[in-house]
Design brief:
31% of the residues lie in helices and 22% in strands. By secondary structure, it is α/β, with parallel strands linked by helices. The strands form 2 sheets. The chain has a 3-stranded mixed sheet. The chain has a 3-stranded mixed sheet with strand order 4-5-6.
Length: 125
Amino acid sequence: MSLLAQTLSIRERQSILDAIECIEAGALQISFVVADDMRLLGVVTNGDVRRHLLQGGRTDEQVTACMNEEFRSVQIGVPREDLLKAFDLGHNALPGLDEHGRLVEVYTRQMAASAEVPVLARARA
């Protein structure tokens, strides 16, 4: 597991307050909720936490109470072009999962934009 994935992941038994601390510690403003075997269960953003608190939730509850289970992910080793397309749709970070759904990497817009080969032109319709 990459250092970025370790930094941005929290266990499913941790509290919402732990998730807030994890979100604030990173520049991507997201946290990945993982099971003990590192399977990705959901994601938590500032907006998820805010909505939960506005509905009467508490910060001492488990993070699973406010996590979003409908998230976009990619397989590790995904082609750079597919990452760029996903980031063009507005994603800031994408979890890279192995064949068992375990979090291995977190892909960011900056990682995808740093080319191994020069990009001459990009367009989208």
